[in-house]
Amino acid sequence: MDEKKKTIFSGIQPSGDLTLGSYLGAIKNWVALSDEYNCFYCIVDEHAITVRQVPADLRRRTLAQLAQYVACGLDPEKNVLFIQSHVAAHAQLGWVLDCYTMFGELSRMTQFKDKSAKNADNINAGLFTYPALMAADILLYQADLVPVGSDQKQHVEICRDIAMRFNNIYGDVFTIPEPFIPSTGARIMSLTSPENKMSKSDKDPGGCIYIMQQPDEIMRSFKRAVTDCDTERCVRFDPAEKPGVSNLMQIYSCATGRTMDEIEAEFEGKGYGVFKPAVGEAVIEMLRPVREEAERIMKDKAYLESIYRAGAEKAEAVAMRTMRKVYKKIGFVAR
Ligand code: ATP
Ligand code: LTN
Fold first, then answer.
1. Dihedral angle over CA of 221, 271, 281, 218, nearest 10
2. Ligand 1 contact via 155 beta carbon (within 6 Å)
3. pLDDT for 158-167, tens place per residue?
4. Is 16 in the pocket of ligand 1 (CB under 6 A)?
């Protein structure tokens, strides 16, 4: 760990296969930031059980997600890659922070409202206190920056509020983190219902692109992507009037590095029938090396194990430092 560098923490739940949304909204930035910062990238399995999971699937997806982190370009030598449940301090600090988080502020969280509507038969206490555990994840590592998609901004804000509340009582215990949200790709929408976020727990498989998906399936989804029923039928960036086309333009921009003006010029006079397969092709080429590398790594169980073991050790050393400080401040007797 380089003491001069600032620190990053981020995580993704192994609640489904990784999507193009989490790749463009989060992981792509993680890779870009990994030289400049001390980075902790976690697989947040404790968060995933706020929604009921099939145990064998959760275990398989956790390992697959680790392989995909590495395949996306996160070097395990440079970044601390680990599984949340391997570091007990997350649950420990999570409990402490539950006692510094207000019922009213948790009730306002949009993710809680959305997920309780989707899982009406299982609105458990963990789903409700989820943001306090997420705050623990971030604060344990004294993170300065949290790279996430825009849907997570509210959770980083409540984390800041909890940290400031705690610091006001006990002095400077926690670094106050900032969210880091990309300018393009912050909110990739479903290909079939562009008013909804592309999400791995989406029930409509055609709306979602998965980073491990085969090229022909990706192309099929893009060809079927809904465009807008306006009369001009041209490629123009206008999220309010043309949400479907604008979403595809965002994806194309992320995949090719081109600006919206350049994309409009490129497809001037050409219809959606040319534009949609071009987006599909760009995404296929962007994801191809990731999928191939992840498939290779998944077969090497010993390598994966060596990564998560080393990651947990490094993470634990840092987390325990914060945990000892917190316990001392709140008045727990040291063992
Ligand atoms: P779930 O459906 O289980 O809630 P999800 O697909 O919404 O999952 P998360 O695990 O919640 O994905 O998100 C992982 C990271 O990727 C977060 O930083 C989140 O902000 C980002 N992200 C997820 N979906 C998108 C999206 N459609 N556009 C941009 N960023 C996204
Ligand atoms: N809540 C996030 C996942 C998450 C996270 C974190 C992100 C859990 N802990 C810490 C950043 C930092 C989600 O649902 N995407």
1. 0
2. no
3. 999 999 999 9
4. yes
